[in-house]
């Protein structure tokens, strides 16, 4: 008797990982707990971007322990966050895709806010960090970049730097099909979106 195939996920969570061994156990626990409350079939795609610590081994073990919920993508070297995210997009299967950082500054408990807005029919849902737990040395350059991007793209968003963002499968497929990819994923995604919105999400100091 053959086992029935696992249902196709409707939600993919893509997380790039680089030297995050001190955060991974809590990250994985909280992401799984958050996703399990949504009432949908999901997968968590964790992409190890050539970490020099034990992140790769921890991701592989998490995938063995949660084979239907966690996919570990182990890159052979460090390609940078942008390419790690695209590697995750490439293996993801969900109709909706949400990405966030591994450092727990984007609380996994906020995934539901992004997911619910995507379910309302938005193509791109961006997190707006309130309040933002960063120093002025990071906030001021970020404000300048946000203003410049709004002026150049015509898409008004207030927090292009927030990594907690959600996309439809159509937007992800369009980004993957681009031969020349901007190194700034939010700008690329907005160029393919018809309906975009921002939703306030909490922001935490870096855990470790």
Question: Can you give a write-up of this model?
Answer:
The protein is an alpha/beta fold. It has seven helices and seven strands, in the order βαβαβαβαβαβααβ. It is 38% helix and 19% strand. α1 links the parallel β1 and β2. The radius of gyration is 17 Å and the shape is globular. The mean pLDDT is 86.
| Strand element count | 7
Mean pLDDT: 86
How far apart the termini lie comes to 47 Å
* Count of runs of 4 or more consecutive helical residues: 7
> What characterizes the major β-sheet?
7 strands, mixed
Radius of gyration: 17 Å
General form: globular
How do the strands line up in the largest sheet?
Answer: 3-2-1-4-6-5-7
Helix and strand pattern:
EHEHEHEHEHEHHE
Low-confidence segments, given as residue ranges, are: none
Q: Strand fraction band?
A: 15-25%
What structural class do helix, strand and pairing data support? alpha/beta
Please bin the fraction of helical residues.
25-40%
Short description:
The protein has 208 residues and is of the alpha/beta class. It has seven helices and seven strands; from the N terminus they run βαβαβαβαβαβααβ.
Helix-strand blueprint:
Elements: E1 11-17, H1 21-36, E2 42-48, H2 55-65, E3 70-74, H3 81-91, E4 96-99, H4 111-119, E5 124-129, H5 136-153, E6 165-168, H6 169-177, H7 185-190, E7 196-201
Parallel strand pairs: 1-2, 1-4, 2-3, 5-7
Antiparallel strand pairs: 4-6, 5-6
Helix pairs in contact: 1-2
